Amino acid sequence: MTKRFEFDPSHTRFAFTAKHMMVSTVHGHFGQFGGHVELDGDQPTTARGEATIKVASVSTNDERRDGHLRSGDFFDAERYPEMTFKTTGVKSVGKDSYQVVGDLTIKDVTKPVKLDVKLEGRFNDPWGNDRVGITAQGTIDRRDWGLTWNQVMEAGRLLVSDKIQLQIEAELTAAAEAQVA
């Protein structure tokens, strides 16, 4: 039986890091998102899901930088308010470890992305809900999605790295009656 799990916004974080001037790491996350995963019994390799992230909710704890990220130089949040990820395949690579492949769409550009996912656990909470915890990591080249703005600094250093590290920590919840026909 397939069950639908929704992201618990209080216990989920879609985050990223990028290098600044190739010497320090900037941490950011997105505060508004939604999505689900459909899971057939205890077989994670059958999982399918999607996430939608509001790009205007980006936060790096620097409002000036966040405004630049929302601008046409990066996400162009007014024209492209959301980015999406849709699972296309899941492969077991070890105990509770999986490689998840999916299509990431940013600014109407869709490219495949691989994520290394660890199943942190699954249990029934005190209210009768089925819960699943996962962590995921991956690396993308932002230029693949048209996020090409940069500045060359002294000695050829780039202001912003092209490689972006993705980190996801998610808790997903299925209500006791949330079964998919």
Helix-strand blueprint:
Layout: E1 2-7, E2 13-20, E3 24-30, E4 33-40, E5 43-54, E6 58-59, H1 63-70, E7 82-94, E8 97-106, E9 109-124, E10 130-141, E11 163-174, E12 179-180
Antiparallel strand pairs: 1-4, 1-11, 1-12, 2-3, 2-11, 3-6, 4-5, 5-7, 7-8, 8-9, 9-10, 10-11
Textual characterization of the structure:
4% of the residues lie in helices and 60% in strands. It is mostly beta strands and 181 residues long. The protein has one domain (2-180): Lipocalin (Beta Barrel), CATH 2.40.128. Strands 1-4-5-7-8-9-10-11 form an 8-stranded antiparallel beta barrel. Strand 9 (109-124) and strand 10 form a beta hairpin. The mean pLDDT is 94.
Rough outline: elongated
Distance, first to last CA: 8 Å
Tally of separate helices: 1
The domain tally reads 1
Which topology does CATH recognise? Answer: Lipocalin
> What is the mean pLDDT?
94
Number of strands: 12
Architecture (CATH level 2) name: Beta Barrel
Structural class: mainly beta
CATH homologous superfamily descriptor: Lipid/polyisoprenoid-binding, YceI-like
| Fraction of residues in β-strands | over 45%
Helix content: under 10%
| Low-confidence runs | none
Strand order of the largest sheet: 1-4-5-7-8-9-10-11
**CATH class bucket:** Mainly Beta
**Largest β sheet strand count, sense and barrel closure:** 8 strands, antiparallel, barrel
Helices and strands, in N-to-C order? EEEEEEHEEEEEE
Q: Report Rg.
A: 18 Å
